[in-house]
Design goal:
Blueprint: E1 7-13, E2 23-25, E3 40-42, H1 44-49, E4 53-60, E5 66-71, E6 84-88
Antiparallel strand pairs: 1-4, 2-3, 5-6
Length: 104
């Protein structure tokens, strides 16, 4: 994110057995993204048909850098809906930011 926020988006619960079939990922770990960037696509009906939950978990992996966080909504919502607002604390330019490792 432009503000240095590091976000992990986990799509579907226990779906590793599907070997990625119902998912199309449009970004790579470490990519800088902007609000509105398409991150991935999940075929929700295929996930459900396989007996798995299509729930999405969003984790801020550098939450220690947050100055402010406000959850706007939870539960079902549409693509593009704002779900949270976050403000990172100012960091000195010499502070290195660790790269996120891909979780497969």
């Amino acid at each position: 994110m432009p503000n240095g926020l590091e976000v992990l988006v986990h799509m579907g619960l226990d779906t590793v057995a599907l070997k990625g079939a119902p998912f199309t990922v449009h970004v790579q770990p470490g990519d800088a993204v902007q609000p509105g960037t398409r991150l991935a696509f999940m075929d929700i009906e295929a996930v459900k048909a396989a007996g798995y939950s299509p729930e999405v978990i969003v984790v801020i992996t550098n939450s220690d850098q947050l100055a402010e966080f406000r959850l706007l909504t939870s539960g079902p919502h549409e693509s593009g809906d704002p779900v949270a607002e976050a403000q990172t604390a100012a960091l000195p330019e010499t502070t290195p930011r660790p790269k996120a490792e891909p979780a497969l």
